[in-house]
């Protein structure tokens, strides 16, 4: 999995006044969990743009004056009105410990049902997976080449060699729905057939 480096500085004061002062200075207060003790730090808002405002999943290398930590974003708080980042929690990665993270789905192939006039509906754009850090994928590939009209693709059909998908087996990833145009055409065809039958 690709990683993004975030340069920040450790902070000693963690009270409300200090946190407010940080935000006013264009900094985001953060906490890194998963080590011997939580690490409080801050970084400029711009440092997080490629980690937060993207549909892709990334790990983060947190660089605090030369001391680096590998981590994943665990939780993020936004301002309800301005959407400004208020606070971020990170979780430190360890080579021998599995972590759970949301991974985006990438659709592959052409569904016969779509070519026949159906519409592909993506029920889940991301799925939670559990794996060792070295086995975290950039994407989960969903092959739709076997989907006919009305068919569904379940998580059980997705590859899970180096990671485990943390969803029930009946979770639908995507499906081919009958489009309104196809439905209308089918209704009109049935109507025409009925009328032709009456004429006979």
TrEMBL record:
GO MF annotation terms: 5S rRNA binding; structural constituent of ribosome
InterPro entries reported for this sequence: Rbsml_bL25/Gln-tRNA_synth_N, Ribosomal_bL25/Gln-tRNA_synth, Ribosomal_bL25_b-dom, Ribosomal_bL25_C, Ribosomal_bL25_long, Ribosomal_L25_dom, Ribosomal_uL5_bac-type
Pfam family, one: Ribosomal_L25p
UniProt keyword annotations, A-Z: Ribonucleoprotein, Ribosomal protein, RNA-binding, rRNA-binding
The keyword rRNA-binding belongs to this UniProt entry's keyword annotation: yes
Large ribosomal subunit protein bL25 beta domain mapped to chain residues: 98-178
Protein's GO biological process: translation
Gene Ontology annotations for the cellular component aspect, listed alphabetically: cytosolic large ribosomal subunit
Limits of the Large ribosomal subunit protein bL25 L25 domain: 6-90
Quaternary state and interactors: Part of the 50S ribosomal subunit; part of the 5S rRNA/L5/L18/L25 subcomplex. Contacts the 5S rRNA. Binds to the 5S rRNA independently of L5 and L18.
Similarity section: Belongs to the bacterial ribosomal protein bL25 family. CTC subfamily.
Function: This is one of the proteins that binds to the 5S RNA in the ribosome where it forms part of the central protuberance.
HAMAP family: Ribosomal_bL25_CTC (MF_01334)
PANTHER family xref list: RIBOSOMAL PROTEIN L25/GLN-TRNA SYNTHETASE, ANTI-CODON-BINDING DOMAIN-CONTAINING PROTEIN (PTHR33284), RIBOSOMAL PROTEIN L25_GLN-TRNA SYNTHETASE, ANTI-CODON-BINDING DOMAIN-CONTAINING PROTEIN (PTHR33284:SF1)
UniProt name for this protein: Large ribosomal subunit protein bL25
Organism: Neptunitalea chrysea
Species classification: Bacteria, Pseudomonadati, Bacteroidota, Flavobacteriia, Flavobacteriales
